[in-house]
Write a structure and sequence with these properties.
This protein is of the alpha/beta class. Helix content is about 40%, strand content about 15%. It has 7 helices and 7 strands. It has a 7-stranded mixed beta sheet with strand order 1-3-2-4-5-6-7, sandwiched between helices. Helix 5 links the parallel strand 4 and strand 5. Helix 2 crosses helix 7. The longest helix is centred in the last third of the chain and has 21 residues. The two termini are about 25 Å apart.
């Protein structure tokens, strides 16, 4: 991943922000990572979207360098369970995550004045933040979430075009609720379930060890890019 003008962009912020793409682009994207933070497969997905959309893509470290560790999973020992539980207790209810995201956007708007249209997508943990950012008065034109932790009724807050890419592991009832809502009058949305893909396949939890995993990863980012291109 290119870290284009990284120091100039991130210096006023108290946290790391990776950036890729064209700094003169008219399109900008914010990525809200899964629990594992700024990780290679998340960065590569951002690169794919930067190329597809000719966009500037930012990945803020909303966990301030304290993302969850892959070696904690599966949490099959008391020690791992304690680590996972401690991380979840600290960050899943952290009221500073969303303001931190908005701080990043505000600074990006100052440093990237050519960007006229902003979008946002979240992976797993980040999906909920992308939904929160899609409410009435959203600064974004389009949003998306990939293999998210879905909450009942959360779709009712979405007011902008939205795409949900679910794995076989998400709650099918909630996925269907999203499908019905986003296909309703005046709504623009896509809801797709990748029935061969496991939770986390578009982020850090894809090992790229099978052809299905590779195909699902690239197809997911292709579909995400197509939707964003159409609605930004």
């Amino acid at each position: 991943m290119s870290q284009l003008d990284l120091i100039a962009l991130a210096k006023p912020l108290p946290f790391r922000t990776d950036i890729t793409g064209d700094s003169s682009s008219k399109r900008g994207l914010l990525v809200v990572t899964d629990a594992f933070g700024i990780e290679t497969r998340v960065q590569y997905g951002a690169d794919l979207l930067a190329d597809r959309l000719e966009a500037t893509v930012l990945i803020p470290d909303l966990f301030l360098g304290e993302a969850a560790k892959m070696e904690w999973f599966p949490p099959n020992t008391p020690e791992k369970q304690e680590l996972v539980s401690g991380w979840e207790h600290r960050f899943e209810n952290d009221s500073n995550i969303y303001p931190r995201l908005m701080d990043c956007l505000a600074e990006a708007k100052k440093k990237l004045p050519s960007v006229r249209s902003w979008g946002i997508y979240g992976l797993c943990f980040g999906g909920g933040k992308a939904v929160e950012a899609s409410e009435e008065g959203s600064p974004f034109k389009v949003s998306g979430q990939c293999h998210p932790g879905l909450d009942h009724g959360s779709q009712k807050n979405i007011t902008i075009p939205h795409i949900l890419l679910a794995s076989k592991d998400e709650d099918p009832e909630i996925v269907q609720d999203y499908r019905e809502y986003l296909s309703g009058p005046g709504k623009i949305g896509i809801v797709e379930t990748y029935s061969k893909m496991h939770h986390g396949w578009m982020g850090a939890n894809n090992s790229f060890s099978t052809s299905d995993e590779l195909q699902g990863y690239f197809e997911g980012y292709r579909q995400l890019g197509d939707f964003f291109a159409k609605n930004m």
